[in-house]
Amino acid sequence: MTVSVFIGTSVDGFIARSNGDFDFLPPGGGELHGYDEFMASVDALVIGRKTFETILTLAEWPYGDKRVVVLSSQPVDLSASRGGIAEQMAGPPSVIVSKLAASGAHHLYVDGGITIQRFLRAGLVQRLIVTGVPVLIGDGIPLFGTLLSDIRLHHVATQHYKSGLVKI
User: Fold this and answer.
1) Do strands 2-10 and 85-89 pair parallel, antiparallel, or not at all (unpaired)?
2) Cα separation of 106 and 30, whole Å?
3) Domains, the chain, ranges and CATH?
4) CA distance 35 to 42
5) Where are the beta strands (DSSP E) in 11-135?
6) Which CA distances in Å does 134 have to 24, 25, 30?
7) In the chain, where does DSSP find H-type helix?
8) How far is CA 123 from the centre of its chain?
């Protein structure tokens, strides 16, 4: 099982404003930077309840027919996914990964600040793709939180784009 993160951040490390808004990201994701190819390789997405609620404010369901697992220990109204394939799970990241692997998933996309942080702390993320947006927003939801120990990373590649996006 491969667990990946593909996310955009402000230069100061925020994935959204404090209210969950991500209006500082380029409209429509900006220029092509590999997201579509990445999504084509994904079997399922794992997101937190707050990310799910934010996604519901978008004009359309962004995940097509991909399986979306919403993590929450509280009931979630999944019918609001407007035709998307959504289900709810709860538990530690290792249990979520085991359940999804047992159901045939091979590549998970983990998204949302707290969810990403939990999977990183559990040592379950193999691919971390971060695209820096050339803007400072000063405050918001950080991509990375406190860690119990260092997480060593192996740099694979860096790409820069005309708009100023930098994908690592």
Assistant:
1) unpaired
2) 28
3) 2-20+35-167 (3.40.430.10)
4) 11
5) 14-16, 44-48, 67-71, 85-89, 107-111, 127-133
6) 9, 9, 12
7) 35-40, 49-55, 93-102, 113-121
8) 16
> What pLDDT shows up at residue 26?
87
Whole-Å CA distances, 111 to 67, 131, 141, 161 = 13, 14, 13, 23
Q: What is the mean pLDDT of residues 4-8?
A: 97
Six token digits for residue 139: 């405050």
pLDDT digits (tens, 9 = 90+) for 21-63: 999 998 877 788 899 999 999 999 999 999 999 999 888 899 9
Tokens standing for residue 105: 């998933």
